[in-house]
Amino acid sequence: MAQEDVFKKIVSHCKEYGFVFPSSEIYDGLAAVYDYGQNGVELKNNIKQYWWQSMVLLHSNIVGLDAAIFMHPTTWKASGHVDAFNDPLIDNRDSKKRYRADVLIEDQIAKYEEKIQKEVAKARKRFGDSFDEEKYMETSERVKEAREKRDALHARYAEAMQGPDLEMLKQIIVDEEIIDPISGTKNWTDVRQFNLMFATEMGASADGAMKVYLRPETAQGIFVNYLNVQKTGRMKLPFGIAQIGKAFRNEIVARQFVFRMREFEQMEMQFFCQPGTEMKWFEYWKRVRRAWHEALGMGTENYRYHDHEKLAHYANAATDIEFKMPFGFKEVEGIHSRTDFDLAQHEKFSGKSIKYFDPEKNESYVPYDVETSIGVDRMFLSVLCHSYCEEQLENGESRVVLRLPEALAPVKCAVFPLDKKDGLPELAEQIVDELKFHFNTHYGDPKDSIGKRYRRQDAVGTPFCVTVDHETPKDHKVTLRYRDTMKQERVDISQLRSIIEDRVSITSVLKKLGEEIKKY
Ligand code: GAP
């Protein structure tokens, strides 16, 4: 099945099984805004809990924070967001649609790339086993032409994005004869800069109202609280502050479901250290964060680093952790060595000293910062994309199963009475009442067949199902069914907790991660 189709299926599965709904759907939704349903919120909370505990439980020198979404507007002057948090946009006069100029050009580069891949695939089919891809790439005239066009475009694009040079971006769109996919015309406006922050007003009277922004990243809440936390917590460098919270960006091109939204959630940690040690910590956090992803068991081959060649003016190193989504390797997390830029800017704009007195060096300085920043929603999407699986079974039936990492599954265990008779529902409820204090356990009403109930739990990724049958009142045993293998075994009711708890607890993943981190 084409990856595009797989992705469409994942999106509709999310809606059908209560993971993600379009926001305010009864009013036809709101572009690039989504709501998390009954299963989605559990999965999301588990991701957040795993992240939070990996930061503040596994690291004795990291503490948490929950800063407000609204911040003093000068914060965003100091951080550079008012002047530089822009995307270049362009409108098509016929369709009246707005696009990101850089995305239109990147799509054009991708078209050349696609052309090259198609030529290679055709040749592979033609030549069979004797096909030498490297040689073909060097000798095929059609491939050479497409590569030259792609490389030339890439070079012009990279040059135009320095600054950026808006006229040059427009010229590229004209020269490449890029058409609007809706109107089919090349009737473009000039390229303009568009600030991505949402603004609103605070205060009752029109005169006294103050323009405030919805934060576009959670990081600044940490920077402006650096001194509060350092002093009240008597923190010594190096130390970190972790925060989970909503962020808002008026994305021009919001696409790929929850991958790029206008309201999303970030999990960010700022690690403050002595100047000169930041590269050591940058390398440390690169490894620790990748280990965090890999401990979930979603395949090491599905992750890669993307080191940034072009760095933001405040950074001296940056990398992304990318995950293989159905639409290619995409950024899920960024690790940035931000130097002393943010704290120094807030020191300058607030006029207050944000220096750290180092008792060992007997001097004061502005600490350097290494940031780890991951989007909860992108993490959620990567987990779902990896877990979604359509299986053909031996008996000719098929099933859709979410092979979620067990510790992240919304429901860990579902308990079913085989039917309504002989006190089976009451017995099943008793088992739920015992297990629910240890992990998320659901009762499954006997109105559907047992097979249907298993399929429904497979579709939401429940790792364990327990069936109470007519033998249970006599022998106190139940049938335990495993999601991934569909293996069933008869176990004593008293064993259920110990069999399931360890496998579904976030603690067991954290222990694995803790062992890995000790090596770094
Ligand atoms: N404080 C640094 C920062 O915000 P970023 O690369 O702009 O850096 C960090 O964002 C992470 O936030 C990204 O790796 C991504 O996971 C998530 N993210 C950013 N924009 C997003 C959007 N529009 N929708 C969903 N997630 C987003």
TrEMBL record:
The residues covered by the Aminoacyl-transfer RNA synthetases class-II family profile domain are: 150-405
Q: Where in the cell is it found?
A: Cytoplasm
Organism equals Prevotella illustrans
Q: What is its EC number?
A: 6.1.1.14
| Residues noted as binding ATP in the record, renumbered to the chain | 249-251, 259-264, 331-332, 375-378
What high-level taxonomic lineage is stated for the organism? Bacteria, Pseudomonadati, Bacteroidota, Bacteroidia, Bacteroidales
Stretches that traverse the bilayer: none
What family does the Swiss-Prot or TrEMBL record give for this protein?
A: Belongs to the class-II aminoacyl-tRNA synthetase family.
* Reaction(s) catalysed (UniProt annotation): tRNA(Gly) + glycine + ATP = glycyl-tRNA(Gly) + AMP + diphosphate
- Entry function: Catalyzes the attachment of glycine to tRNA(Gly).
Q: How does it assemble?
A: Homodimer.
Care to name a GO molecular-function term for this sequence? glycine-tRNA ligase activity
Question: Which residues of the sequence carry a binding annotation for substrate?
Answer: R100, E217, F264, E265, Q266, M267, E268, E371, T372, S373, I374, G375
Q: Does the keyword Transmembrane helix apply?
A: no
Q: Which Pfam family is an annotated match for this chain, by its short name?
A: HGTP_anticodon
Q: Which UniProt keywords apply?
A: Aminoacyl-tRNA synthetase, ATP-binding, Cytoplasm, Ligase, Nucleotide-binding, Protein biosynthesis
Q: What is the uppermost EC class here? A: ligase
Q: Which InterPro entries match?
A: aa-tRNA-synt_IIb, aa-tRNA-synth_II, aa-tRNA-synth_II/BPL/LPL, Anticodon-bd, Anticodon-bd_dom_sf, Gly-tRNA_synthase/POLG2, Gly_tRNA_ligase_bac, GlyRS-like_core
What protein does this entry describe?
A: Glycine--tRNA ligase
